[in-house]
Amino acid sequence: MDRKIPENETIPDLTLEAWDDIEGLRRPTRQQAEACIRSLLAFIGENPGREGLRDTPDRVLRAWEDFFGGYDADPESTLQRTFEEVDGYDEMVLLKDVDFVSHCEHHMMPIYGKVHIAYQPRKRVVGISKLARVVDIFSSRLQTQESLTAQIAGTIEDVLAPLGLAVLIEASHQCMVTRGVKKANALTITASYSGSFKDNERLEQRFLRLVGAA
Length: 214
Hints:
There is one protein chain. The chain is an alpha+beta fold. It is about 35% helix and about 20% strand. The protein folds into 2 domains: about 5-65, Orthogonal Bundle (GTP Cyclohydrolase I, Chain A, domain 1); about 85-210, GTP Cyclohydrolase I, domain 2 (2-Layer Sandwich). The chain has helices spanning about 30-45, 55-65, 75-80, 130-140, 145-160, 175, 195-200, 200-210; strands spanning about 80-85, 95-105, 110-120, 125, 140-145, 165-175, 190-195. The longest helix is centred in the C-terminal third of the chain and has 16 residues, at about 145-160. The protein is elongated. The termini are far apart.
């Protein structure tokens, strides 16, 4: 059962001390990453060399490139193209039920749910698909739901500078469903409000009613 890692598959130094200097961080090669996955397979008692697992490290890395593509994307640049011709419109702009899948940074298990975003324009609006793209970028990184909420809200706030902004996320965490407390129906809700949505309770309640959270 024991399988020695060939010398050309040397696993990089992954001790915590080796990663303390983020400025000197260098990504392992694909070959090194595949070696790490083979080690994990061996750790659980599997034979990484058997037919069904021989190509698994490559498959896992290709899946991770899909899951975590958000590290190579800039969410702020996504919102740079805005429009000022809004004919004086200053009411709520709401994008609701934006599906997302992310992965928790604690157990690297899926988080999935919906994001609702509303903002009150000051002078500029942005294409609604760009808001969904911001959600995609941040969710394609290791996350906590709290951080995901803050990052989406902070980016929209910084770029659009709206009169008010509301971001609400409803999500299920597979680390609670399939392990630990195993609560299949548990739903986590996080929210961020600023400007008019934070100062005007009626506007906040209107937002919550429209997204079905009130």
